[in-house]
Specification:
This protein is an alpha/beta fold and about 575 residues long. The protein has four domains: about 45 residues, no CATH class; about 100 residues, Beta-Lactamase; about 150 residues, Histidine kinase-like ATPase, C-terminal domain (Heat Shock Protein 90, 2-Layer Sandwich); about 120 residues, Response regulator (Rossmann fold, 3-Layer(aba) Sandwich). The chain contains 16 helices and 17 strands. A hairpin with a 5-residue loop joins strand 3 and strand 4. It is rod-shaped and about 170 Å long.
Length: about 575
């Protein structure tokens, strides 16, 4: 037995390395190495435990904390791990702020053995609560109470951020709701404004239609009224012209001259109003053609030469051979107004009509040595009823001439310019396109020139007009010029008188609108046919429409608009005789 015991002791000694010298020498270094590794591993975990950023504690499931690292101590506001472990003897009431939260935490641990991302509130030493997130494991050791190993993260800042974001979201939602309400309100207002605008537009459309209809009625009224007004005015002008050429007492001559000026003012006002109305209604259609400018300028200078001589003003022309593209009648109106104003506002000196050639166009200029225009009024003169102060005793017009010129120039796309020095004079210009057309004839003879009275002596003139006063006035004026005159109210009466008196007229002066809707053009053709000869004829009319002008041009009839200006009538008769 004793021997056996010795053998057994030796075997055990050998197994644990305490046997003979060789066994101890073989296992002791390895065991020492393992112990060192365990010590190092222990130190490493201890260092990680103490320096971890997240809180770590170990506690009994139904008791208090047994171990805690500095991070959890700091999270809960304690001075040391010992103080923390001594204070937290019960997790439910001393660590968790809410008993229900601990109940949920404990249930999950017991049920699943682990909890991840469980968010709750811990009680700090100062009584405040701190937001934490817990990852925990439940360890069940045999014969011991279950223990909890927990890792805790302070999520207070995240919660604050979440709360702030939530608040911002709520504020944003409130702002969105408020803005949406504002937009809805603005949209309602916009729809209301659109509705009101549509209503206003409909009302404006109706008003525009009413205004256009009124304008049409006005134009028709003006056209009809102008004929009725110009007829007696024409008769009065002709009688006054006859009286002016007679030898009268000085007092009577003065009265006749005053009546003459009054009639001219009334005539110009009515004519200008009609022209303004037509231009504003786009009722004037330009008749664009190519023609030599010199012919038109010569006619204008010839027309105003006697007027300039009466004022002792030198009126001269610088000739030009260019061919221009424009409406000769409307361009004539522009130049006539320039020359008329230049003579009117010039008391002494000269008026020069000239041209300055530029690339693609020519600038027709009228220079004068008149009173000039102040710089602040040089654009106002193109407005209706705008006139400059002038101390001249002659007729001054009504202030529509340049307004008409401005409208005509814009319609023709002919730029207007004015330059003036007060007290020195002015220059008015209109720019007209130049064309290269060598086939345009250069007519040196113009319809307006200074006639001689004796050239009309014995001229046989047939006058046809449905107004008795005009017939009497024409008879008096033409008779005073030495003409042989027959007057008639219709074609049939004219033919009968010519046949009875064996009268072959040299010229026929016919009104366009006769009684019973008959026309002067038909009367001219009827008389020519009855008498068997092509008698020169002139249309006298108050109708200034473009359609009539075009028709007279196609028929080859010269036209004098009513009220008839005696100087034009005399010049035309001289030309036709």
């Amino acid at each position: 037995m004793k021997k056996h015991s010795n053998e057994t002791d030796q075997t055990v000694t050998s197994l644990i390395g305490l046997g003979n010298h060789s066994a101890r020498k073989s296992y002791y270094p390895e065991l020492a190495s393992k112990l060192d590794e365990l010590e190092q591993e222990k130190n490493r975990y201890k260092w990680l435990f103490e320096n971890a950023q997240h809180g770590i504690f170990q506690a009994s499931l139904d008791a208090g904390v047994t171990t805690a690292n500095p991070a959890i101590v700091k999270i809960c506001g304690y001075d040391s791990s010992t103080a923390f472990c001594d204070a937290i003897t019960n997790l439910e009431s001393l660590l968790f702020c809410c008993a229900d939260a601990y109940a949920d935490f404990r249930y999950s641990l017991v049920q699943y053995g682990k909890v991840f991302g469980f968010e709750t509130l811990f009680i700090r030493q100062d009584g405040q609560c701190v937001h934490v997130s817990i990852n925990a494991l439940l360890k069940k050791n045999q014969g011991e109470h279950p223990t909890i190993e927990a890792f805790v993260q302070d999520i207070t800042e995240r919660k604050k951020t979440q709360d702030k974001l939530k608040q911002l979201n709520e504020e944003l939602e409130e702002r969105v709701a408020s803005r949406t309400q504002e937009l809805v309100s603005l949209n309602d207002k916009l729809w209301q404004e659109i509705s009101d605008r549509e209503k206003i537009q409909k009302e404006l459309k109706v008003a525009k239609e009413v205004a256009e209809e009124a304008n049409k009625s006005k134009d028709k009224y003006l056209a009809a009224a102008s004929h009725d007004l110009l007829q007696p005015m024409n008769a009065a002008r002709l009688l006054i012209a006859a009286l002016r050429e007679r030898s009268l007492h000085e007092q009577d001559s003065h009265l006749v001259e005053r009546v003459h000026l009054a009639l001219e003012n009334a005539e110009d006002l009515l004519t200008d109003l009609l022209d303004i109305s037509k231009l504003d209604q786009n009722a004037v259609d330009p008749d664009i053609s190519h023609f030599r400018l010199n012919q038109l300028l010569k006619s204008m200078v010839g027309e105003f030469q006697p007027v300039a001589e009466d004022k002792n003003i030198q009126l001269s022309l610088r000739h030009s051979s260019v061919v221009v593209k424009s409406d000769s009648r409307l361009l004539l109106r522009i130049i006539r107004n320039f020359i008329s104003n230049a003579i009117r506002y010039t008391q002494e000196g000269r008026v020069l009509v000239g041209c300055r050639r530029k690339p693609g166009y020519i600038s027709i200029q009228v220079w004068d040595t008149g009173t000039g225009i102040p710089s602040d009024k040089q654009q106002d003169i193109f407005k209706e009823f705008q006139q400059l102060d002038c101390h001249s005793k002659e007729r001054q017009g009504v202030g529509l001439g340049l307004a008409i010129v401005d409208r005509i120039a814009k319609m023709l796309n002919h730029p207007l310019t004015v330059q003036s020095i007060e007290g020195k004079g002015s220059v008015f210009s209109v720019d007209v396109p130049i064309v290269d057309d060598s086939h345009v004839a250069d007519k040196s003879q113009t319809p307006f020139h200074a006639p001689q009275l004796d050239q009309l002596q014995g001229l046989a003139v047939l006058v046809i007009d449905n107004e008795e006063n005009i017939l009497v006035s024409m008879d008096a004026l033409l008779g005073q010029w030495g003409c042989r005159v027959i007057t008639a109210a219709s074609q049939d009466e004219a033919i009968a008188l010519c046949e009875d008196e064996s009268f072959i007229p040299d010229v026929i002066l016919a009104d366009y609108h006769l009684d019973n809707d008959l026309l002067g053009t038909d009367a001219i053709f009827g008389i020519r046919s009855a008498l068997g000869c092509e008698i020169p004829a002139v249309m006298l009319t108050a109708d200034r429409s473009s359609e009539c002008s075009q028709m007279f041009k196609q028929l080859g009839f010269p036209v004098i608009n009513k009220p008839v200006k005696p100087s034009k009538l005399r010049a035309l008769l001289t030309h036709l005789s």
